[in-house]
Amino acid sequence: MSAYSERPWLALYDEGVPAEISQEHPSMLAAFDATLRRSPDGVAIKYFDGSLTFAELNERADALAVALLENGFATGDRLALYLQNNPAFVIGLVAAWKAGGSAVAINPMNRQRELAYLLSDSGATALLCLDELYEAVAKELIASGGTSVKTVITCSALDDQSRNDERLFKQPFKLRVDSALDLQQILKQFGGRKPASVSPQASDLALLTYTSGTTGVPKGAMSTQGNLAFNSQTYRDWMGLDENDSVLGVAPLFHITGLVGHVGVALLTGMPLVIAHRFEPGVVLDAIREHRPSFTVGAITVFISLSSQAGVTAGDFSSFRILYSGGAPIAPAVVEQFRAKTGLYIHNIYGLTETNSPSHIVPLKAEAPVDPTSGALSVGVPCFNTLVRILDDDGAELPVGEIGEIAISGPQVVAGYWNKPDATAESLPGGELRTGDVGFMDEQGWFYIVDRKKDMINAAGYKVWPREVEDVLYGHPAVSEAAVVGVPDSYRGESVKAFVTLKPGASVSEEELIAFCREQMAAYKYPRSIVFVDELPKTTTGKILRRELRELS
Asked: Which of 107, 280, 369, 550 has its Cα between 20 and 30 A from that of 154?
């Protein structure tokens, strides 16, 4: 028996937290129906000064499902959601399931070329999108007939609220869209009608969520109803969440963190989901002050941004009892800086699109240790029902403490990639996910991410992991954010280059920052050059795009 199959991490679980859980609901639709029966008048969504109860959410999803079916949507079809963090996203997601189909989550930052690929690859037959995105991006594409989309429904970010915050909404009026159906009209026309009852199985496709495509063509990860229901329950049971909590939706809802860690857990527990169209730090801070959420999970850049706002105090965050961060590496120094300012500890969480959000979580009553060798903050321990191994380049299991690729098995791992059997066979052999992330497990069972395989720097034959250099840079009091890449070097092969943003009012020279790093790491590791920038390029989920920085070098 291997050290991993013995699951040493179970000894690190909080007292009373079981090693395994029994999945309560076979599908997200069943989970939602149970919440609806239990708490129809409970608030499901808070959106600026507007709100929807679970009964209202259900009625709207019913109406949209009926409209989809009457416009040709069939069992097994897919509804593409091209939206921001709006109530329409949740309505559309539930409606797709009620109509016997699944949803396709699309990044609202995508432009026409990217949208064309996603609609074509997914074979979506219906599209629900913001009016502004339809006019600027989708309209011409749909009119060209180059996709399978037959039904287009538009909505406005101004729907379901009356505040019209100028920081987000430059035009306080809806666009008139003549060549598409209007969601508000559909809700009026079909209100009170119900689609034929469906009972999705755990193995049924619930969602296509596309990988970021930072290393190649985006692939549609096939999340089943069981995947989503299991990991929504993981959030609930691990963190002790219930209808008395509320979740702040800081992650984009199209992203797996927002889909499971915001929408899924809210639909399961019956707690309100607080959303505000998109992440604008001042707007989100106001939402925190107004709605007093108790839980959120988001990229560390979100917490850095919120705590850096002018006038912010520890009291602004006092409603929170649970904070988790995932999606991007976390430097230990940043966690301590946030705690010094707010009094709150940010727990680490780790997962991928292919694991439907978490596979590893720091226990709620614990603090993540820091590896003394690499300086990396632990991402936690494998959560319920999950087995994780560390593998070498040939797929052989490595001993405890050895660095290799993280491989994950469990009920949260996706069924495969949509219409990509070769990619599925390569990344999910036997259903075990080969993550592409490099890390190790210590003797206690804590896991650490060293870096992505593709980001390793080879400096004169020595391996340099960008994470380690970045963590040292974050330890300098002037540094706000840092990203490290390898750049071609005629002598060393590659050398280490850093891109840094500074905190407001702070100053430090390139020479001083290089010297700061040189004092704390081996000679082959410290950056040979540092570029100061106003902002680091990021995905909409807060991950820093090292690829773009390499292209700048």
From this structure: 280
